Amino acid sequence: MTISQRRMSRRKFMIMGINAAGAGTGLLIAAPIVGSILSPLFYQRKQPWVLVADIQHVPVGVPTAYVVMLDQGGDAWQVPPVPRTVYVVKLNLDNQVQVITLSNVCTHMQCDVHWDINLNVFFCPCHGGEYSMDGTNIAGPPPKPLFRYEHKFVGTTLYVRNILTEGK
Amino acid sequence: MPLLASVTPQLTPVPVSTGVATALVGLLMLTHIQFAAWQQGGYIILAVSDFVGWKRKSERYDRFSKGLVTALGATFAVGGSLAIFAIMILFLGLWSHFYVDLQRVMFWPFVAEAVAFVGEIICLYPLYARWDRLGKVRGLRIGLEILLFINAELQMLLINIVASYMLTPRPANDLPAILMNPTEIPLEIHRFVGNIAWAGAIIALTAGIRLLLKSGRRPDVRPYLDWMGHYGLIWAIGFTIAQPLVGWEYAKEIQLHAYASWYDMMLGGLSVAFLIQVFLLGTIFTVGIFYLWRRVRASGFRSPALAVCTVLSFGAWMLISTPSSLAWSYEDVFRANANVPIWQGGLLIPWGAMIPWKLTALVAFTGVTIVALTIYLKYVSRGKLRWGDAGRGQAVSLITVGVAISLIMALMGFIRENSRGPFLITNHMLINQQQNFSPPSSSGPALQGPASNIGFSVILPVEPHP
Amino acid sequence: MAQELERSALARKLTKPFSGLMATTYRWVDERLGVTDLVHQLLYEAVPRRGAWAYSLGSATLIIIVLQIVSGMFLLWTYVPSTTEAWESLNFIEHHDEFAAIVRGMHLWGAYVLFVVIGMHMLRTFVSGSYKKPRELNWITGVVLFLLVLGLGITGSMLPWDQAAYWTATVVTHIVSYFPLFGTQIEEILRGGPQMGPDTLTRFFAIHIWLLPALLVPMIGLHLILLRRHGEHGSWVNYEGVEEETEAERSRRMAEAEAPYPAIPSDPGYAVPVDLDEFFPSQVFKDALVSFALVLLIFVMAVVVGAPLERAANPAALNYVPTPEWFFLPLDQLLVQFPQAWMIPVGVFVVPGIGTTLLMMVPFLDRTPGREPWRRPEVMVPGLFAVLFLLFEAMLAVGRLFNL
């Protein structure tokens, strides 16, 4: 082989080596970083039951707001419970009393929804979304009905936990 | 002012039936808005045309500006007399309760409006009478035109304060609440763009009619008319682009703050009229874009892009004109127990629903018109369009857009006033309260009427307490 | 030869106050570092003579960005990016440390003024057609800078963790979830979980203080390098009579042009402004005055108005009306106007996406050689609509929020 042909193969080898080393270095640095950024997708937390109120104090047909401390999930070093509002609504459907525990998180952009006495709807101030008493989205941008917290009764005491189901 | 308050109760209303009175006032207002909108929009077109003519040293723009200012001077004389004399006489005579009430609540806005009128005269007449001499100080002339435009916008702002007060009244002594009335800002923007579009439409309409006349075939006149029609049309559909945006928010505020009116307009008895309204809106966009396509073709260029825009606009037009039900109103649908789609035996047509179908059509209009206008303007700025090439079809398109905008304005006024019915001032005053009311007691400013149980506090110049 | 003379004259000027040992030291350093050469290159270039006050907006933007970086670096001395301590640390500043409160105020008003100045700078370059050949990349890097500053503005507003910040963060991260396919996953990555939490604050803090600045600074460098390479374009008043000049006149003008002109490739006649001036001291004087005035305005606003701090974040408060920052009002109004189901992604991604793309594509949409605005209706008319769109949306949003 001539000198120039030999030099070509050494050069090519060295360039390949540069590429490989560079890729390897980048990968070693990036992999743990990317893994850490993506870690919230894979972390689950258990949700405890939280006491709301005695259901006998809630009048029929009047959405009543209660503030409870809920575990917000996520994977941080400290996860203090966050105060959130639960709307407890006692509906009278076909002479049967049904209790629903609505999350007041708007299904549009997650602002706080509140029951407006004048408009007789759940109203979201951010973009004008409106929901009826049972959480159905009736006007404005919200695409879905209000979510509902999982609830259970111990006697007449109502408990909720931060697991949401789709509203009907 | 206290002096006037003691005088007005002596005025006895003209004994005319409510129906006739309402019809007369309605006819007058519909005529008034055609004049007023033209006046306002015309001023800004005047200022821009004068400026562009100056910078481009263009004889066409200068000829146009002079014609425009002459027209505006004449229409102001007619329209102004119409507004002041006839409205005052009609309102004072036929709708006196309303008129007196409004003067009490809106005293200072009306004073400002009157001052603005004087300002308009001060700016307009020198332009009208001394146009050529002012041409020697071109910058001053343009400055006067801009001043005129600002004046006109002030007049519109003040009358919008009154108009929004009628639809969604706020406590009379809360000036910030009256100025930031929820239906006032959308109305302001809505009328701002609508006035300019209407002025452009009149220019296009005039050009279109003259193009069809025999006098329009003269070779020295036809290129100018062709250009004038194109120029007016760009203003007309250019500013109509903003209407879907603003109209949506306006309707939203009415829904939130005057639900009964909103229901009437969108789902109730007036919904058929509103359907005609959006049909006219589709006409404006589609025929306008059609004009752009064919005008380019008339000068020898094929534009598949503009053809596609026309087709898309036509599709949006058909979509937005689809009724949401086969009944006259939503109550009729419920009464017939038929609130299911037609193929299930009901009366509803799902593609006529506002969300998302009609909204999609509105978005499509906005987007397609911007694209079409941009493509068209590229031909114009390269000097590719020969003025004088316009054919019969283009003239008819111009006339159609002009007539459509005139109709849409008149119909909007009709819908607006009737949706607020039976109230003249929502929840405060009925239309048929004008002919039988008791004069205010001398002890205080509270107004009593048969059904008026809300005492107004007034915005009056208050004498200092001793 | 003339260059050599000028350079040594400059070196003499710079070392004039120094004598003896200092002058020798300066010359020793200069031989190795080439400082005089660098200063010469930076200060001695040609700029257009007419309309120069308008061209000071670009350097004003740079100065205010530097102000933001400096004031931000100082705020790091006190601020803690923790959900429990962020508000407390800032509340302490507001009540107990007037000077730090002023710095915080300058940081906030610096951001507000920066948006206005960027808007004016964009408007000026748009109207004067400065994006035309060969400066298209300058415009594109400018749009990228604008987006980065927008990102910095919105992430910065989330840091105080008061009510306004909390709900801004909630809404902004939730918007992301409407992105098709993996939107929810991106939301969880940004939030550090499905719901707002301590991770959210730390992640946005990182984005705000190093990720976005790390992208911003090189982009600014590129923007300035491009400006230096092609020279300041100026506006149409600097090219009067260019279309009517003869070939001889034009070639003479090109040959006589001082650095960095002529800008090549260019439309014929537009490579060199008709009348030139010195960058230093003419343009620098105007730049310095305008920058000073703006920083003074920021300082006054910081002292008189200051940076507001609402109550600490409370997700359960029912009577709070979340209001976006003023520079996001048009986008918020889009959220109102594109309701339900698939229209939401159209409103938040497609419409702003198309708008941003068109903004970047402006140099390629405008092919006319002329520089006057009234000869370029195909960009002026859509541009006017874009400005009116933003203005109308903001006005409608203000009216809506006032009446809630």
Explain what this protein looks like in three dimensions:
- The complex is a heterotrimer of chains A (168), B (466) and C (404).
- Chain A is an alpha+beta fold and 168 residues long.
- Chain A folds into 2 domains: 39 residues; 116 residues, 3-layer Sandwich (Rieske Iron-sulfur Protein), CATH 2.102.10.
- The mean pLDDT of chain A is 86.
- With 466 residues, chain B is mainly alpha-helical.
- Chain B folds into 2 domains: 165 residues, no CATH class; 242 residues, no CATH class.
- In chain B, strands 1-2 form a two-stranded antiparallel ribbon.
- Chain B is globular.
- Chain C has a two-stranded antiparallel ribbon with strand order 1-2.
- Chain C is built from 15 helices and 2 strands.
- Chain C has 404 residues and is an all-alpha fold.
- Classes of the chains: A alpha+beta (168), B mainly alpha (466), C mainly alpha (404).
- Chains in contact: A-B, A-C, B-C.
- At the A-C interface, strand 3 of A face helix 8, helix 9 and helix 13 of C.
